[in-house]
Amino acid sequence: MSTIVRDYTIPANDFTIAGEASSSVRKILSQLGVSPDVVKRTSIAMYEAEINAVIHGNGGMAHVEIDKNKIYIRISDEGPGIADLNLAMQEGYSTAPDSIREMGFGAGMGLSNIKKNADVLDIETEINKGTIVNITVFFKRE
Amino acid sequence: MTVKELAQMLGYKIINKSDSINKKVTGVYACDLLSHAMAKVNEGDVWITVHTNLNVIAVASLTNCACVMIPENIDIEDQTVERANEKGVALLSCSKSSALICYEILSALKDMR
Ligand SMILES: Nc1ncnc2c1ncn2[C@@H]1O[C@H](COP(=O)(O)OP(=O)(O)OP(=O)(O)O)[C@@H](O)[C@H]1O
Ligand SMILES: [Mg+2]
User: Fold this and answer.
1) Which terminus of chain A is more exposed, N or C, with fewer CB under 10 A?
2) Residue-range domains of chain A with CATH
3) What is the Å distance from ligand 2's center to A125 Cα?
4) CB A73 less than 6 A from any atom of ligand 1
5) Left if phi > 0, otherwise alpha if psi is -120 to 50, otherwise beta: which for A106?
């Protein structure tokens, strides 16, 4: 199988489109016959990163590469960056404003959901430059 | 017991048409924090939430829950019903509180055993 590459734009603060990139990737993986558990883990991790870019990062981009053994997802934004990544990773920590909390976000669980569901998670972030979330999920666990 | 059978038995309103009403119900989970629900809702759960925005449909489809239940006759946004149709997510509603719905569904599931 050759590598499948997809790129998506993630618009800022638009909840009619938020989640569509992950939804599209979920469909591709299902069609490829990837196991339901892997599809679920991948799409949850990607959704959380996508929503974070929408809410916290002023929107951004998703880049996806799927090969025989794994899926690699890069969600990047040029938002404010994360000042203290260790703190942000803690369950319950959230800076989501009230308007966002009213929709049900802001539990401070997104990053930990990504960590739990990804096989490899690497977050690069710089204040006032932006954030890049790199997620890899293997189709078969070693 | 399927979503449809559960709805008929307990008098819940089925909001939209989807194949998911034939999904099997195996549990119930109530939570209004979306990322928390994302982590905890199991496949086959009736997920109860007071939110009716589009993000609810994303969480429902990613977790493969049996259906979404909106309690206390809360109005459901039109675009959410449309999105539910697109994604094949079953939406239910009723006048009861989340707590009472949990009790009813757990009792019904227990009686099945
Ligand atoms: N892309 C990003 N850019 C800037 N800050 C971010 C980004 N992603 C996460 N953060 C920061 O990390 C915090 C924790 O993120 P996390 O996803 O765990 O929780 P949340 O988005 O606030 O709420 P939830 O995901 O539970 O709805 C956020 O509140 C925000 O301060
Ligand atoms: Mg988040």
Assistant:
1) C
2) 4-138 (3.30.565.10)
3) 15
4) no
5) left
| CA of A108 relative to ligand 1 center, distance in Å | 6
pLDDT tens, residue by residue, B27-63: 999 999 999 999 999 999 999 999 999 999 999 999 9
Q: pLDDT, tens digit, for every residue of B78-109?
A: 999 999 999 999 999 999 999 999 999 999 99
Which pLDDT score, from 0 to 100, does residue B66 have?
Answer: 98
The amino acid that residue B21 corresponds to is I
In terms of DSSP H, where are the helices of A57-141? 85-89, 98-101, 110-117
Whether the CA torsion A18, B31, B43, A117 is positive or negative: it is positive
pLDDT for res A1: 76
**A32 touching B, CB under 8 A?**
no
Residue that has been written with the tokens 């892997």 in this structure: A38
Between CA B75 and CA A39 the distance in angstroms is 32
Q: What are the start-end ranges of the H helices in B2-97?
A: 3-10, 34-40, 54-63, 78-87
Q: How far apart are CA A31 and CA A116, in angstroms?
A: 24
- List all residues 6 or more positions away from B86 whose beta carbon is below 8 Å from its beta carbon: none
Q: What is the CATH number of the domain that holds B43?
A: 3.40.1390.20
Whole-model pTM? 0.95
Report the distance separating Cα A49 and Cα A60, nearest Å.
10
Strand partners, B70: B93
Q: How many domains does chain B have?
A: 1
CB of A50 shorter than 6 A to ligand 1 = no
Q: Would you state the pLDDT for residue A142?
A: 53
Q: For chain A, how big is the Rg over CA atoms in Å?
A: 14
- Asked whether the beta carbons of A136 and A72 are under 8 A apart, the reply is yes
ipTM for the assembly: 0.91
